[in-house]
Amino acid sequence: MAQFLEIKSDYPNALLFYRMGDFYEMFFDDAVAAAEALDISLTKRGKHLGQDIPMCGVPFHAAENYLLTLIRKGFSVAVCEQLETPAEAKKRGAKSVVNRGVVRLVTAGTLTEDTLLSPREHNYLAAFTQVRDQSAFAWLDVSTGDFSVQSIASVMFGPMLARINPAEILVPETLSDTLAEACGENDTTLSPLAPSSFDSASSLARLCDLFKVQSLDGFGQFSRAETAALGAIVDYLNITQRGKLPLVKPPVRESEQSIMEIDAATRRNLELSKTLTGDRRGSLLYTIDRTITAAGARLLERRLASPSTQVTTINNRLSAVTEFLDNSPLRVDTRQSLRQTADIERALTRISLDRGGPRDLLAIRQSLAQASTLHSALSQLHAKSIEEMVKDLVGHDALISLLDNALNDDVPLLARDGGFVASGYNATLDEAKTLRDEGRKVISALQATYAKQTGITSLKVKHNNVLGYFIETPATHAKTMLDEPLSQDFIHRQTTANAVRFTTLELSELETKILNAAGQAQALEVEIFGALCTEIMANGPEIANTARALAQIDLATALADLAASENWCRPKMTDDRQFKITKGRHPVVEAALKKDASGSFIANDCTLSAGTKGDKPIWLLTGPNMAGKSTFLRQNALIVLLAQMGSYVPAEAAEIGVVTQLFSRVGASDDLARGRSTFMVEMVETAAILNQAGDKALVILDEIGRGTATYDGLSIAWATLENLHDVNQCRTLFATHYHELTGLNANLVGLENATVSVREWKGEIIFLHEVKQGAADRSYGVQVAKLAGLPNAVVGRAKEVLAKLESGAAEGAGKTQTLIDELPLFNATPTPVAISKESAVEQSLQKIMPDELTPKQALALIYELKEQLQD
């Protein structure tokens, strides 16, 4: 317990996994917390200060599953291993305690094992700091080595957190309380560090030491805040990995102007990577993800979260998609080859941290071989972006050859299990494995040799735990064996009643080799494994480049496959404020309709171009609920996102001037934890838009002001629309039920009225989902209520109330009190709904048998019905 308490004192905020034989044991408060979190038994072991010591434990071989549960529940875990064997400890004294020490601190942002990570999602460790008037946000995926940093305004901490979505973020202790709320909303683990971790001078030294350079100038110009944030991550890795750092790629400095700004509310409203219920299924990412490799899926997630605002970058990505779209057979073959590759980014990281296994080596061998094959196939393509990818696929011939010669095709998970080194690679290993695996054959051959030498056919070579291997002959042959010349070779060991036992120098040596063969073979294989890992790490940067190229090719072919199967078009990207979508569609809704075979999606145009006289960059959209207004709003935002991430888009044609900011306020709910009503949430999100949106932004707003009284809401919506037109001057889709706003197009020259078409038939409404110019005459709310299943009496009463309210509004405010008197709030006796009687024409039609009419009779009937109508 003294050793446990001493080690635990260095890690007061982590659970200590204390290795004891085949188990990780936990004691005291750690045991109580872990037992509850893992739902395992809490026992006791010994006493401390007169009290029972709580204890629980988990098997060493299944520790990863328990680690994952603990990390997900917000714990960090210090893994304490035995640093020597019990036999080595006894050399210091019979009662010496085995030396132990923490080899790793497991936290949410430092996971590397496949079983602890989602293969298709990044797991970022981030850092945020402020240095005087500068702020910076850095992030690293420890499992892949991707390292980035960006200078941001301090108010952009929330949007950056939503964009990167790190598992864990490091902040100075002085900022932890200020940033805790935002981290909690994003479900990110907050880890405060001492100010020394963020010291810019110390951080610079750490980074230079990590990358073995004298200056970071070769990677870019980094501000003091950026250097401090990057250095804090490296310092945390030193703490958690106990000095054994992963393969970290040189940091990439991202510019705030090169990435589309999307705040947390917009990401949530548009359901980019998760639906409003938190599911991946049903999100935009889930719908468009046709990548084959895990690295390709992570690249898709990254690009969708950070659409580019650089026309050149966007067009290069689109050109790569076009190449594969135009070469369908090549695309199919390429995707088939990609199926044979593995996640070598994460395999490299595990190897660099000594957590890899033979399967990681095999994955790298197979992936590099496929990369070489892909290079030959793709060299015929000449798009600049593809040429950049293809050049990084080769240059590994020597390593591939080494791994081919060294590895079997079927290998175990762990190096200590052995059996992964191919025969013929190492002669000493082959001999050891032969003795280990074929010891009986070798002994049998030696027995035959001795039988022939002595002439005793009944001679046997046997084994027991006392003598080991020995030669046994019947007692009747004892004299022969003990006399010259055989006594010179055969050494007497034991005599029994019925047999005499001997040994030879050859048998003793063979016994030693056989007994040590398994251990020797295991040690040799572990040694060879280490040598292969060293060779791989010597080529680490080049392998990482190949991994990145494979991910880019995977994404380009996936987007091409998506465009081909869904009939998407290549958008035309410009640097101005054009916006013209022809027959655009909502990708998620369209996919759902196809899956359910419930109909086809109605495509619609949208033109929000700005910058020249006569342009109408703001559309005021009216129409009933359920008609598709929100779908129309969202689909245009999603088309912009897809275009700027480098994808084809669901439309017949699209011309888009780069959008630098995307804002969406579609739907809202209570935020009870912070005491915010639905209306307050709506106003906070609207305020953020009006205060931040620039002229190259795209804003979509749905039902501003609906959470308060009618006139209050109308006033807020009116003023918001005017501000967007006069001050923000951005491209906007503004949906509303306040039909009074449609009159503003007379004064706001950039405003266009649009509506979603419906048709009314026999008191029912039919949604046409077609957006056209003009304004809706009403909202059809009562009809929608009827479709929702409200009782007929309620629907009928609502129609009556609506008719009287509309009549009162038409006659003026003086009718208000009369309406209140006529329509008491709790009228218990609703007026029956009038049911119309069948007309004479309808009665006549009911009696007609069309198949029995002659042409002359049918003509006569038409005249008869016409006369009845006139009557």
Describe the secondary-structure layout.
Layout: H1 2-8, E1 15-20, E2 23-27, H2 28-38, E3 43-48, E4 51-59, H3 63-72, E5 77-82, H4 86-90, E6 100-106, E7 124-131, E8 134-141, E9 147-151, H5 157-164, E10 168-172, H6 176-185, E11 189-193, H7 200-211, H8 224-240, E12 252-254, E13 261-262, H9 264-270, H10 284-288, H11 294-305, H12 311-326, H13 328-338, H14 344-352, H15 358-378, H16 384-390, H17 397-406, H18 427-454, E14 460-464, E15 468-474, H19 478-482, E16 491-495, E17 499-503, H20 505-538, H21 540-566, E18 572-574, E19 579-584, H22 587-596, E20 604-607, E21 618-622, H23 629-645, E22 653-657, E23 661-665, H24 678-692, E24 697-702, H25 710-728, E25 731-735, E26 751-761, E27 764-773, H26 781-788, H27 792-811, H28 816-822, H29 840-847, H30 855-870
Parallel strand pairs: 1-5, 7-10, 9-12, 10-11, 13-23, 18-22, 21-25, 21-26, 23-24, 24-25
Antiparallel strand pairs: 1-2, 2-4, 3-4, 5-6, 7-8, 8-9, 14-15, 15-17, 16-17, 19-20, 19-22, 26-27
Structure description:
The structure is a single chain. By secondary structure, the chain is α/β, with parallel strands linked by helices. The chain folds into six domains: 2-106, MutS, DNA mismatch repair protein, domain I (3-Layer(aba) Sandwich); 114-254, Nucleotidyltransferase, domain 5, CATH 3.30.420; 289-396 and 539-564, MutS, DNA mismatch repair protein, Chain A, domain 3, CATH 1.10.1420; 427-524, MutS, DNA mismatch repair protein, Chain A, domain 3 (Orthogonal Bundle); 567-785, Rossmann fold (3-Layer(aba) Sandwich); 840-870, no CATH class. It has 30 helices and 27 strands. Strands 13-23-24-25-21-26-27 form a seven-stranded mixed β-sheet, sandwiched between helices. It has a six-stranded mixed β-sheet with strand order 3-4-2-1-5-6, sandwiched between helices. A six-stranded mixed β-sheet has the order 11-10-7-8-9-12. The longest helix has 34 residues, at 505-538. The radius of gyration is 38 Å and the shape is elongated. The relative contact order is 0.06. Residues 823-835 have low confidence and may be disordered.
